[in-house]
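Minutes, project huddle
Topic: does the predicted pose make sense with S-adenosylmethionine bound?
PN asked that the exact inputs be recorded in the minutes so nobody has to dig through chat later. Recorded below.
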Amino acid sequence: MSGHSVPKRWLEVTVDHPGDPETAALLVDLLLELPAGGVEETASALRVHVPESLEGVTPDPEAWRRTLARRLGSRLGSRDPWPVTVRWQAHEDWAETWRQGLGPRRFPPRLVVSPSWAPGEADPHEIRITIDPGMAFGTAEHATTRGCLRLVQSVLTTGDRVADVGSGSGILAIAAALLGAERVLAYESDEWSCEALAENLEANGVLPRVELHPGEVTGPELVDAGPFHGILANMQTRILVPLLPAFRQALAPHGWLIVSGVLRSEEPVMRDALQRHGFAVTDEDGEDEWWTAVARRQEGRPS
Ligand SMILES: C[S@@+](CC[C@H](N)C(=O)[O-])C[C@H]1O[C@@H](n2cnc3c(N)ncnc32)[C@H](O)[C@@H]1O
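Predicted holo structure (tokens), as shared on screen:
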């Protein structure tokens, strides 16, 4: 891990917005497979930034455009050819674009997320999380992150031991620690995200209560690290469902699980999987095409 320096320039990849929210969500998933951190979504386009210094980033934007347009056509169909544009962007310009778009965001009753350059007015009962955009998903610019931030405030109890699976920028792990968790284990597979995560933990003063576990998380690893009072998991449905048995085993009796990254169209599949694996949905949140839920470990059956 680590050892990366800040790239001199970024490959900016832009795809015109497909219009309907479901296709846009699938497109976000596909763009998240690129070696980029977050996907920026505006009314007219979806955009990612890939660092030049990353292995495998060819210096030929046109080759990127052709490959991505082909991949979009074969995976999502519907638009042929897909309107993809690719260009180099200097590091300074990239950082500035982010700065202009982001300000403090409030998640009542207590959480506020803001970048370091725009902290906003401080209110004594609020808990402030500082996240500067880096190469990691989780700046509260995505509805799935926001759903978790809204729901976690009513389930987390002071002293909880928590796992944040697919931690990205570490935003949820930081929120958990600042809300009173005694210990948080943050699991993240992406190298670039881990770097941003480590910086964010430091900037928010939550070290050493939050522990970073780089690498792809496995079920047995989670079970070994348990028991947890709560698990936060904002990942895609196809990654979440196979992990549900391990989540159940890693949780203490009546422990809470927050799942996000679930499309509204996937809600029935996720509800059914939760029930089959011994969870009961106790709270939920919907924003745009995304569904986020709190599920409690049900007792009275073998785990
Ligand atoms: C949708 S982002 C969520 C980030 C943050 N928790 C939030 O709520 O904004 C999902 C993250 O999970 C990471 N991830 C995906 N599969 C993983 C795995 N098997 N193990 C660990 N991290 C994984 C991705 O790299 C990505 O950073």
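Observations noted during the meeting:
- The chain is about 35% helix and 30% strand.
- Residues 137-138, 144-145, 148, 166-168, 171-172, 187-190, 193, 216-217, 234-235, 239, 261 surround S-adenosylmethionine (CB under 6 Å).
No decisions taken; revisit at the next huddle.
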